[in-house]
Amino acid sequence: MTLTFLVKFSRNYCCLVNPQVQPHALSLPRLSKMNDCVKLLQFLEVISVITCSSISSFINKIIFAFAKFGQRDKSLVIFDHLKRQGYGLDLVTYNIVLDILGHTGHMDEMLDVFASIKNTSFIPDIVSYNTLINGLQKIGRFDMCFLYFKEMTENGVEPDLLTYTALIEIFGRSGNVEESLKCFREMKLKGVLPSIYIYRSLIHNLTKTGKVELATELLEELNSSSTCLAGPEDFKQKRRQRNPLKSLSF
Hints:
By secondary structure, the chain is mainly alpha-helical. Helix content is 72%, strand content 0%. Among the domains are: 1-88; 159-244, no CATH class. The N and C termini lie close together (11 Å).
């Protein structure tokens, strides 16, 4: 994807939002020849004033568009530039960048961005924590996963399906099946439906540690017609919440 694509996207999007911006949007093609993301963002700032829309909503779409089409490095360059210049970033912006850094394995940078949220007026939400915990899980930093989970609950952020899925997997992989079972019981008490993936993870790890009787009980529970499970739509919904722009079409 090139800047030309973003120019076309921005022009069409802005005209759709408010036909009054069409004369301004027609001036965009010449920007594509400059290969200058800053110019495009300056244009979007003008458009945000005309449409009475938040500049952050346009920024988020630009950052997401680069990442979606495989140019995550450019997404991060734009984010860093805007952050230094004091542009109107919001929590969604930070969550998108956390997700990008997690997918690219840049955990030090991910932790820095997460820490920087606390220096703003924003408070990390369930999306922020889930993204961070999943990123740390991928590189085996289970100790830090537990640390941020503790911080999350102390800050009053309630764990959801994705949180419990990650924690049960982490406890299981670290050999602490008792804590996995504790999380499993807790989520059910809170009305969070477990998924088939959670059952399979628990059954596998219980069997692996010699707790065959408990594994058999869970298998019977899983196969029971009275057991309610979280389905694919529940995961899709949580993933959309984790990345609010993921459902956009470009």
